[in-house]
Amino acid sequence: MLLDVYAQIDVEPVSASGCWIDAADGRRYLDFYGGHAVALLGHSEPELLAVLHEQARTLWFQSNAVPMAVRDRAARALLHLAPPGLTRAFFVNSGGEANENALRVALRVTGRQKVVALEGAFHGRTAAAAAVTAGSERWTGFAPPFEVVRIPFDDRRALDAAVDEQTAAVILEPVQGVAGARALSHEFLVDARRVTRTRGARLIADEVQCGMGRTGIPFAIAAAGVCPDLMTLAKGLAGGFPAGALLINEADAARLVKGDLGTTFGGGPMACALIEAVATRVASPALLDNVRRLSGRLRAEACVGPVQAVQGLGFLLGLRTTRPAREVLSELRARGILAGGAADPQIVRLLPPLVLEDEHVDALVNALAELPG
Fold first, then answer.
1. How far apart are CA 354 and CA 239, in angstroms?
2. What CATH number was assigned to the domain covering residues 1-373?
3. Which whole number is the average pLDDT over 78-103?
4. Confidence (pTM)
5. Which distant-in-sequence residues (6+ apart) come within 8 Å of 353 by Cβ?
6. Cα separations (Å) of 175 from 120, 184, 224?
7. CA torsion, ordered 177, 134, 200, 81, to nearest 10 deg
8. CA–CA separation, 31 and 18 (whole Å)
9. Hey, which of 156, 158, 217, 235 has its CA 20 to 30 A from 93?
10. What is the pLDDT of residues 13-22, one digit of tens each?
11. What is the pLDDT of residues 91-102, one digit of tens each?
């Protein structure tokens, strides 16, 4: 019945609460993957359930053809978290759609047709987003709609050489997710801001996976003191409800006219109500303190059993294993823990809800310690 295009694990969730998933076979699993970083505040979070119920009861859907206070509130809450300089929001449905629109804006406002992307990047599977994704020939099947120049990860010299007066944008993930939780250096991010500004290009920060508090601060790029021209968000943006967003600076927003961008379902009232609630929670110092503290514990204690190193930031971590990650993932599932893989076959990727607790870290560390190295 369903198109067979997904590699699936042998776990069928039937319900979930907090950081736990109950499966059809009667087993319970500790969720260290959050459905690809989507369950930002955990599963069946009571506040989000209440917000969703109230908004669905009040107004199920209306399009962007009409103004809505809930959409304005969501934008205001999100921009309050964002690096200063990002002043406008455009709501969409997914990370790929957010990146499509970010690239479209950069090409339009610069009038240029060249984009610089990083090796190992993942920005989506749709046309423009796939063109700047590593291994794009697998996703597109056609020539990119613009010139793409790929540079090595975190290579400042290659960045300086690649960005010129023909470059519309540099697109990057401050922490690459699919590649295995690889964090760009602050020096690279600062250089990316400098060279794009000097040469008239736009800097696009893809924080679809690493944003919304996942690294222990609202947005990962802000740790380097950098404000991009455009930022893209999705995954946990609405706590599990499909939603994405593009944030943009005032000067470029002013160059767009009605009809330049569009979406049917993006910015719907239910998604916006949840975005407002999630953004309000992410603004809580206690939540982000929890991420930083428990991330520190994972870094300090998870190098046991088959794990030889930990990379990444916050709750976007990669455990580098001495054996193939697929073996380690299977052994963890046998012990009731779900985690994820990466493009790197030696990386177990952790993307747990931000409401993770000490006892959950204990359970993962103890399970890893039981595994052969």
1. 11
2. 3.40.640.10
3. 97
4. 0.96
5. 18, 19, 31, 34, 39, 40, 41, 42, 43, 315
6. 11, 6, 12
7. -20
8. 9
9. 217
10. 999 999 999 9
11. 999 999 999 999
